[in-house]
Design goal:
Layout (H helix, E strand, L loop, with lengths): L2 H10 L16 E2 L10 H17 L14 H13 L6 E3 L3 H12 L8 E5 L4 H13 L4 H4 E4 L9 H6 L5 E7 L11 H10 L3 E5 L11 H4 L3 E4 L14 E4 L44 H17 L1 H22 L6 E2 L12 E4 L3 H10 L2 E2 L1 E3 L3 E4 L8 H17 L14
Parallel strand pairs: 1-11, 3-4, 3-5, 5-6, 6-7
Antiparallel strand pairs: 2-8, 7-8, 9-10, 10-13, 12-13
Length: 421
């Protein structure tokens, strides 16, 4: 693809109008939306509206105004359900990803007899592993023994059959990512869920790197639970309240960590010392909802509804395919390797480039006006986001990267990460 073809694709792009919804920095190509999505004008307005409600109503903002705070977590959960193929009552917007994982593991991990182990994977995001280790320790179990990690043969991707092979009679719970955060591999969620259930094992997924970029069908696939952040592809803002899914077959049960806002809404203010959980995923809330951290999501979800998740996924796959083709044609001879799966059904929303000088190349890209993402030990992540990345920007990124490599501009930087990679 050349610049002319890229411009033609932008001309025909059915999602192109959404680009104007976002605050885009002049002379900058933003390819880090899989780490922090950009602010939309609607999200900004939604946050200001919530501030105005506080100003106008004071404490009555809990039950009055455009978005009463008392019901906001459940309302946003219901509005998020289409992203993951869930029923409205199965989703709530609450907490953070790690807090939600603690809640879900405390609710679904019940070691009995020989089933005392949790299965994860060795490529998982560290925070998930820390939480699983903590939950095992709280049960008096040694994480070195009772946390099983499925192995990767190449250090970048996982094989579903290998994971299934680890689902032994000792496993009580499986927790896996939908998309691997480094390589961008999309796991076969339906296959893994079916295999776990055939073996009497509960299974949950971390959807941080897929929700908002990849359509899911968590309800029909029978996924027991899931959790994800809303500040990446969903553009909810830094520290945005996270998402939590619990399949309807588990609703009505007492959560592992009970808290006031998980109460049945009708009885919450009865102030009884007996916890009466909500009959929806709202029961898995722990504390008072973070209203300002939730407000921008309401506007973001409107945009996703209008754009359609299927259209977003179609464009995302096309953009990453074009980016991979350009890397192959323009960057041969510069020691780059694409480590994300090439197949559409196994690829999330970003391209993962392996290079021994990855950290310093990322610094050079940023200096040249391209915002990438670096992950140890040697991965450059490039995430074209369907709602605000253009095809011309993809073409320009690869040309800039080629110039950096040809002129060895990266050599002026240290090959180590910044405080935040």
């Amino acid at each position: 693809m050349d610049l002319k073809k890229a411009a033609a694709l932008d001309e025909k792009d059915e999602l192109a109008a959404f680009r104007s919804e976002f605050y885009l920095k002049k002379d900058t190509i933003y390819l880090d939306g899989n780490s922090l999505g950009l602010l939309s004008k609607r999200a900004e307005a939604a946050l200001l509206t919530i501030l105005d409600a506080w100003k106008e109503f004071g404490i009555d903002g809990w039950t009055q105004g455009e978005n009463p705070w008392y019901y906001l977590s459940e309302t946003l959960g219901a509005q998020s359900a289409f992203l993951i193929g869930a029923k409205p009552e199965e989703v709530v917007v609450t907490g953070s990803t790690t807090v939600n994982l603690h809640q879900l593991v405390s609710s679904f991990f019940h070691p009995k007899k020989n089933r005392t182990k949790i299965l994860a994977d060795e490529l998982n995001f560290p925070s998930d592993i820390y939480a699983l280790q903590s939950q095992l320790s709280l049960k008096g179990l040694d994480p070195d023994v009772h946390l099983v990690k499925a192995k990767s043969t190449n250090g970048h991707t996982l094989e579903e059959d290998e994971i299934i092979g680890c689902m032994t009679e000792e496993i009580a719970l499986v927790v896996l990512p939908t998309v691997l955060y480094r390589s961008g591999q999309l796991l076969d969620i339906e296959k893994l869920t079916k295999a776990a259930h055939e073996r009497g094992i509960l299974i949950g997924f971390d959807g941080c790197h897929s929700v908002g970029a990849v359509p899911h069908e968590f309800h029909s696939w029978g996924v027991d639970f899931a959790y994800w952040c809303n500040y990446k592809y969903l553009n909810g803002g830094p520290g945005a309240s996270a998402g939590l899914f619990v399949h309807e077959k588990h609703l009505g049960k007492l959560p592992g960590l009970s808290g006031w806002f998980g109460s049945n809404k009708e009885s919450q203010f009865d102030m009884q010392h007996v916890f009466t959980p909500a009959d929806s995923a709202g029961a898995y809330q722990i504390g008072t909802p973070h209203i300002f951290s939730s407000a921008p999501l309401a506007a973001s979800l409107q945009i996703f509804k209008e754009a359609s998740l299927l259209s977003i996924r179609k464009k995302s796959l096309n953009m990453t395919r074009i980016m991979m083709d350009l890397i192959d044609s323009e960057l041969s001879g510069f020691a780059f390797s694409i480590v994300n799966p090439p197949e559409d059904n196994r690829r999330g929303g970003h391209v993962a480039l392996l290079h021994p000088e990855a950290a310093r190349i990322c610094k050079a890209l940023k200096q040249a006006g391209v915002v990438p993402d670096y992950r140890l030990p040697n991965i450059i992540r490039l995430a074209p986001v369907a709602l605000y990345t253009s095809y011309e920007e993809i073409w320009r990124t690869i040309q800039i990267l080629k110039d950096i490599m040809r002129e060895k501009r990266y050599e002026q930087y240290d090959n180590k990460r910044e405080v935040i990679a």
